[in-house]
């Protein structure tokens, strides 16, 4: 690696020729990569736990003696919308900071914000307090999406990037299983008073998050971010250390030579206008793809999950304290999708897998809506249908994050993730809860069928867009999929 500087004082960024990306991509899987997965990916388990608990305890929060003057519709409507609004704002705010100041600083800060807000939610004494800290919990988790997905994709070898990204994003549903089962315990008034149990569920999330924060401190900064931002020697040294750890695990086996170098004109930051020009002018098809994927999955998930408890209790007389069992089942289907299908995104390919998972989940949800409208389903069979729908939908939804993190240049990666997450989630995640809460709360079969059909239609549209526009990114380096803005091309 050579760096072109006038002197050794703290210089303005110059030009660096480096094999850092190729050196990272040629590494075999190792314990070091597991450290990255555990340190960065496990926060989705916490997110799933916390979000699911809120949905499942909505009925308890609205009961007299809960300690909060709040209704169930306010929890699933206003509070849910504020959580998503906070996530959108947080994604954009922290996404910009992530591209400017680095992945590591921000994935530590965003987790700290998330944990503090969750702890303060547990101390809620009034509805306004609960609403405020639902917003700030979302604010932290939105930043996590940008910082974590950027770091993961830049640290994981290209041969494994798809399956790892999908499984990590899908691990949200492991937390959802835990949250469902935990809510059953929290709602048991033989164990906890009405105003205590739900608070303990948030407190447990904080304790687990603190453990993750300690593990996360050992995850390094992205070498890709370092060499572009004028810290080429640090990036080189960091990758050398990673290579030594990998060789030690593989009995000093010689690593294959890196597949080429890249020359970068280093810079400190990228302005909003350059990001906007890159996303909308240079990559309009990819932008259309990203928006379609995020909007489609946001509406499908809101169509099912935000009215989940209400549908079971209103139409099938399932007791409020038992809905957690049903949600644990569909959460398992959600996690198994990315776990079992993830490797095919690296082998069969992105285009086929993304389009097929979106289309299949949409078509299957149409079928579920038809059966529900006919009165052919029970609580058990409806849950089984949802599980199959979400098996495919979860793999597709996880691939949305993978897609937008790898199809735009590195300098814009975190902001691209933040932008598509914010736009798609605002469209489906703010309007979705408000729309679907009314539809599923009405008690009318036709309204609930309409909610299903809206989600299914947008998933099918996104699947068709993916069939046309998806990028063949499997087994390719990030720099090959989208050339860095700072790349110096040969004259």
Brief description of this entry?
With 491 residues, the protein is mainly α. It has helices spanning 20-25, 31-41, 43-56, 58-61, 72-101, 103-122, 127-155, 161-170, 172-186, 197-216, 223-228, 232-249, 272-282, 284-305, 308-316, 323-347, 350-374, 379-406, 413-441, 445-469, 478-481; strands spanning 2-4, 15-18, 262-265.
Protein architecture, described:
With 491 residues, this protein is an all-alpha fold. The protein has 21 helices and 3 strands. The protein has helices at 20-25, 31-41, 43-56, 58-61, 72-101, 103-122, 127-155, 161-170, 172-186, 197-216, 223-228, 232-249, 272-282, 284-305, 308-316, 323-347, 350-374, 379-406, 413-441, 445-469, 478-481, and strands at residues 2-4, 15-18, 262-265. It has a 3-stranded antiparallel β-sheet, with helices on one face. Helix 3 packs antiparallel against helix 10 (197-216). The two termini are 20 Å apart. Residues 1-12 have low confidence and may be disordered.
């Amino acid at each position: 690696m050579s760096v072109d500087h006038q002197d050794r004082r703290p210089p303005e960024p110059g030009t660096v020729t480096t094999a850092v990306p190729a050196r990272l991509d040629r590494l075999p899987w190792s314990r070091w990569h597991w450290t990255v997965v555990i340190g960065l990916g496990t926060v989705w388990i916490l997110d799933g736990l916390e979000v699911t608990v809120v949905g499942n305890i909505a009925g308890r929060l609205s009961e007299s003696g809960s300690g909060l003057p709040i209704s169930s519709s306010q929890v699933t409507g206003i509070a849910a919308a504020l959580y998503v609004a906070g996530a959108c704002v947080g994604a954009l705010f922290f996404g910009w900071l992530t591209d400017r100041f680095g992945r590591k600083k921000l994935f530590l800060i965003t987790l700290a914000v998330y944990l503090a807000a969750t702890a303060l939610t547990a101390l809620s004494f009034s509805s306004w307090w609960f609403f405020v800290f639902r917003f700030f919990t979302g604010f932290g988790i939105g930043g996590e999406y940008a910082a974590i997905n950027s770091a993961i994709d830049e640290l994981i070898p290209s041969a494994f990037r798809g399956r790892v990204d999908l499984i990590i994003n899908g691990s949200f549903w492991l937390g959802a299983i835990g949250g469902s089962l935990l809510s059953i315990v929290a709602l048991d008034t033989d164990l906890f008073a009405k105003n205590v149990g739900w608070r303990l569920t948030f407190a447990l999330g904080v304790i687990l998050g603190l453990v993750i924060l300690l593990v996360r401190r050992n995850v390094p900064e992205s070498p890709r971010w370092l060499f572009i931002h004028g810290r080429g020697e640090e990036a080189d040294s960091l990758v050398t250390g990673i290579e030594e750890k990998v060789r030690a695990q593989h009995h000093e086996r010689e690593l294959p030579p890196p597949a080429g170098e890249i020359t970068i004109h280093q810079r400190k930051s990228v302005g909003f206008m350059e990001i906007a020009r890159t996303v909308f002018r240079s990559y309009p098809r990819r932008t259309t793809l990203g928006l379609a994927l995020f909007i489609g999955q946001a509406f499908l998930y809101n169509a099912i999950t935000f009215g989940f408890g209400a549908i079971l209790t209103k139409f099938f007389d399932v007791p409020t304290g038992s809905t957690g069992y049903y949600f644990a089942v569909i959460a398992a289907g959600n996690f198994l999708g990315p776990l079992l299908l993830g490797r095919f995104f690296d082998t069969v390919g992105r285009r086929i897998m993304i389009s097929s998972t979106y289309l299949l989940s949409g078509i299957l949800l149409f079928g579920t809506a038809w059966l529900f409208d006919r009165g052919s389903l029970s609580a058990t069979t409806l849950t089984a249908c949802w599980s199959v729908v979400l098996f495919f939908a979860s793999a597709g939804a996880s691939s949305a994050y993978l897609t937008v993190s790898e199809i735009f240049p590195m300098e814009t990666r975190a902001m691209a993730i933040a932008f598509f997450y914010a736009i798609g989630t605002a469209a489906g995640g703010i309007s979705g809860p408000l729309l679907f809460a009314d539809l599923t709360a009405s008690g009318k079969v036709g309204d609930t069928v309409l909610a299903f059909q809206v989600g299914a239609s947008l998933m099918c549209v996104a699947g068709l867009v993916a069939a046309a526009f998806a990028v063949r990114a499997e087994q390719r380096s990030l720099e090959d999929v989208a050339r860095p803005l700072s790349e110096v091309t040969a004259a």
